[in-house]
Amino acid sequence: DVKVTQSSRYLVKRTGEKVFLECVQDMDHENMFWYRQDPGLGLRLIYFSYDVKMKEKGDIPEGYSVSREKKERFSLILESASTNQTSMYLCASSLSPGIYLENEQFFGPGTRLTVL
Amino acid sequence: AQTVTQSQPEMSVQEAETVTLSCTYDTSESDYYLFWYKQPPSRQMILVIRQEAYKQQNATENRFSVNFQKAAKSFSLKISDSQLGDAAMYFCACYTGTASKLTFGTGTRLQVTL
C-alpha cells in the first residue's frame, strides 16, 4: 500500500514564526503536491514537484515555499506565518505526471495548522 | 483554466437507500480524467472512482457508479445501498495533461442516517 505521512496532525504556531510541514511517501513516486483545504473552498493547490529539486507554483503559492531535496520528501515552508494561513494542509503523491492511470494521487492524513 | 463545481454542500441519505452527488466541470481539453475522492472524518482522502473522458461507458466500483455526460460536462456519483461508513466529504476532481494538476470542487458532505 502507498503510504503518505505528514509530520504532524495538529500544529499551533504564532504569527511571524517560520513553519515547516513535512511530507514523506514510501512508493518512489515522482510527483508530490501540497494543498490547503478550507471549508467552502475545497482543495487548492499550493505547490507541486515533479522531481527532486524541481518545483512548480500551484494556484495559491503566495506566502509559501517548498523544498524537495530527496525524492521521498516534500516540505512546505511558511516563511512568516500569518493568521490567514490557518488551515488544513494536505500532502499528496502520484507516480507520473502524464495523463495516465498512474496520475491517481494518494493523500496524507493532513496537518491542521492554527496560527495565533 | 479548468473548473469543477459541486452545487450541493450537504446531502443526507438513509441507510440502504441510494443517493446521487452532482458535479459539473469545464475544460477545453479533449483528454482528461475525472475523479471522485472521499474524505472520511479521519481526514485521509481516498479515491472512490475514476472516469477516463474518452470512455463512453460509465465507471462502476461495487456500490459506487458514475453518470458521465460528456456533452453536458456532468459527472455525478451514485451510491447504492448506502452504509454508515459512506458518511464523508466527497470531492469531485478533474485532471488534464495540459494543466498537469487536479482541480477540485468545493465538496459535498454526505450524512448517512439510520
What would you say this structure looks like, in words?
- The complex is a heterodimer of chains A (116) and B (114).
- Chain A has 116 residues and is mainly beta.
- Chain A has no helices and eleven strands.
- In chain A, strands 2, 4, 5, 6, 9, 10 and 11 form a seven-stranded mixed β-sheet that branches. In chain A, strands 1-3-8-7 form a four-stranded antiparallel β-sheet, with no helix packed on it.
- Chain A starts with a strand and ends with a strand.
- The model of chain A has no long low-confidence stretch (mean pLDDT 91).
- The mean pLDDT of chain B is 93.
- By secondary structure, chain B is mainly β.
- Chain B has strands at residues 3-5, 10-14, 19-21, 24-26, 32-39, 46-52, 60-61, 64-69, 74-79, 88-96, 101-104, 108-113.
- The A-B interface holds A 33, 35, 40-45, 48, 58, 88, 90, 92, 97-99, 101, 103-105, 107-110 and B 4, 6, 9, 31-33, 35, 37, 42-47, 50, 91, 95-97, 100-102, 104-107.
* Portion in strands of chain A: over 45%
Enumerate the spans of chain B where pLDDT stays under 50 for 5 or more consecutive residues.
Answer: none
Mean pLDDT of chain A: 91
Q: Helix content range of the residues of chain B, please?
A: under 10%
Strand count, sense and barrel status of the largest sheet of chain B are:
6 strands, mixed
Instruction: Detail the poorly predicted runs of chain A.
Output: none
What's the number of helices of chain A? 0
List the chains of the largest interface with their residue counts: A-B, 24 and 26 residues
Order of H and E elements of chain B:
EEEEEEEEEEEE
Radius of gyration of chain B: 14 Å
The secondary-structure class of chain A comes to: mainly beta
Q: Structural class of the helix and strand makeup of chain B?
A: mainly beta
In total, the number of strands of chain B is 12
Would you list the SSEs of chain A in sequence order as H and E?
A: EEEEEEEEEEE
Oligomer: heterodimer
